[in-house]
Amino acid sequence: MIGVDPRVSGTQRYSVHVERPGMLHAAFVRSPHAHARVLAVDASGLPADCVALLPEDVADLGRYGCQARDQRVLADVARHAGDIVAAVAAPTAAAARAAARSVDVTYEELPAVFDAVEAVAPGAPLLHPDAAESAGEAVSIGVRPLTGTNVCHRFRIRHGDAAAGFADADVIVSRAFRTPGAAHAPMEPHAALAEWEDGRLTLWTGTQTPFNTRADVAGAFGLRPDDVRVVAPPMGGSFGAKTFVRLEALVAALARKAGRPVKATLDRAEEFLCLNRHPATIRVRVGAKRDGTLVAKELDCWVDTGAYADCGPGVATKMGYAGVGPYRIPHVRVDALAIYTNLPPNGAYRGYGAMQSVWASERTMDALAEELGMSPLELRRRNLLRDGDVFATGEVMHDVHFEECLDAAARAVGYAEDPRGAGLCVLLKGMQTPSRAAVRIERNPVGYVVRSASCEMGQGVRASIRLMAAELLGCEPGQVEVPDPDTDTSPFDTRTTSSRSTHMMGRALAVAVRDLRANGGEHGFGEVVNEGGLDPDTGQGIASTHWHQGAASARVSVDEETGKLTVERLHGVAYAGRVVDRAGAELQNEGSMIMGLGTALFEELDFDDGQVANANLSDYNLPAPGDLPAGFTHELLESEGAEAHGLGETVLPPVPAAIGNALASLGLDVRELPLTPERVLEAVDRR
Amino acid sequence: MHLILNGKPWQVECEPGDMLLGLLEREGLTAARATCGIGVCGACTVLLDGVPVTGCITLAGQVAGREVTTAEALGGSDPVQRAFATAQAFQCGWCTPGFVLAARALLEENPDPSDAEIAEALGGNLCRCGSYVKIAEAVRIAARELAA
Fold first, then answer.
1. ipTM of the complex
2. What part of B 22-51 touches A (C-beta under 8 Å)?
3. Residues in A 195-254 with any Cβ partner in B closer than 8 A
4. A132-159 b/e with 16+ CB inside 10 Å = b?
5. Do the domains at A6-110+190-265 and A276-384+396-432+538-686 have one common CATH topology?
6. What is the pLDDT of residues A200-246, one digit of tens each?
7. Domain of B86, in residue numbers
8. Are A320 and A153 in contact (CB under 8 A)?
9. Structure confidence by residue, pLDDT tens digits, A426-453
10. How much is the pTM?
């Protein structure tokens, strides 16, 4: 490689830097109300060089949405404060924002609901009365809306007979937990640029999901997928924020109206309205024999997906089965509801629902241990899944390493010797299943070009692909060129999510290299397909063809005068199988733990009547360099001959529960995240 | 308005409300990046007479006649940049130019900072990818290299 990496020199170009000749800049007209019908939009005050996108301009466009087609390009009913009801394009971004302020919208306010549990109570305002119909059009997973309610998806696990299991239990513990909404806060905001040429649409957009975006935008515009091209430049962070259709349909509609390319870039406050993490309320009930053998577990999850379903059904599903935990339990019942509320939409967030239910489930394990008079470490060891065991989904577990992860975590904080002030958590998380990945290799004069739709967002997928391809091809990594994803030239990939890319692309590369060698060495194509999926009504099937396994441990101290919680030690463990890019894998582990630390200690969206009250990086705190614990360590577990396991998210979900359990070991039982000084002080008072 | 930008005299038109970051963007410079808009994340860090400032809350008028340095001026061969590359102290890279400039300013003032001093000096820069462990390592590598 010549010269320093462009990310270090500052010359890296991201989607916010894409420009096209003659392009205009977009700004959005957003509803100030959390729930209101749009009665009239008056753009007569717009300057002559601006273009307005009004309800009549999108009347011919269909609905979109990755798991329920419940979104319109412009909202005819605003379903959250900040929902986009009109848009403008102008020669500069500043002129566009000024023009957007000149648009006058008349609303009829409607009753609103801001809590997922309240939103399923009888009489709650309905957000999408036609939810069943829009879910019926969705294609990606079997969605089960409950007609006439705000439930856009109900996921259930029915394994054994939970009632009979509890009847057989000697000890039963029941707890309820809450986790708040949170911001992904990628440093680079969302940006998308649309250009039409002869009826064909090109989108340059920072996205993890180029093919999903292509299909969904094509559907809304009545185009064939081939008539839409999505180019995905590297992202300045995403963490799930830049998944599925965000700004792409809007800029495409604006560009169609303007007859010129149009680009939108969100400002920081708008980032908090675009996509957030699902708030959740979770009830756990677990029953065990006197010797600690688990016999039954029930989990109820109220998963707040906000104004639109987005991938909330998928998040609720993963939350549901991750909350069972990596344990052998003969009788399991799970009911996880993805519920509409009048908050901004919630979607994929590093961990994809696992953090929320693992927080609840693993805190309950410590409560059960206390009830049994057992060590929490011993209770977990006694019940952990091992190779050949059957999980609650009915699938037989393979390549199982939970015990190694747990033991490594316990060792790092000296848990067995001194459990007081220390806490553990062990994690089971699935990978997107079913899914498909493909890669194409082309010989060029200096080496090879490897084309795939795996998107770079800082997780290092380009480096992983380069290293894996070089190893398989017997060349230097510097000879392998990995262009940005482009749906015109990159073969199909399900998406860059769920820590799947190194694992799936590594397998596809092996196939492609075999193909290249068998066919003269100039071209190779490789594809891998993972079948599976769960029955949404029973939770039986194949949840994951490949398990993400991890653990975390913490040691804490508390100032009981101020409520200040100090994490003295934090250790994360991810089962890596085989590490492809050592530094990259370490960065993913460290980054996951730091994000988990923010989740545990201070990250929380503060809503006031549906308005985000802390929509800036001063009031919404991100972990800073000085927030790292004095002891901050992690491990990547490998085994001889193993395949590469995904690890981009694995050690985020267990961090809050490890810290919460450490706090609980001091008699301070806080069941709602984040663990703020106020909540710790209340726990001191309760004790 | 006249100033020195990356070592060269620069004459630029500006309005009273313009911020330095906007001026740099209009000039086609992209290493200082609009991110938080309120001066708390450090991703638009530039050096003003050698001192790190955030371009998003520095009025253009404040820099008249002064010397502004952006990460572009380092050209990729600065010892601190090389240390960031060696330590692989970045993920998405969005915040990296800001960290590099803040680290440079720290090492000029304190050539042998402790871990606590590194965390303190870089406290005005945020990395959402969470590369802080390797960023601190990069600063230690750069300190050793500059001392040698």
1. 0.98
2. 30-31, 33, 35-38, 40-41, 43
3. 234-237, 239
4. bebbeebebbbbbbeeebbbbbbbbbbb
5. no
6. 999 999 999 999 999 999 999 999 999 999 999 999 999 999 999 99
7. 75-147
8. no
9. 999 999 999 999 999 999 999 999 999 9
10. 0.98
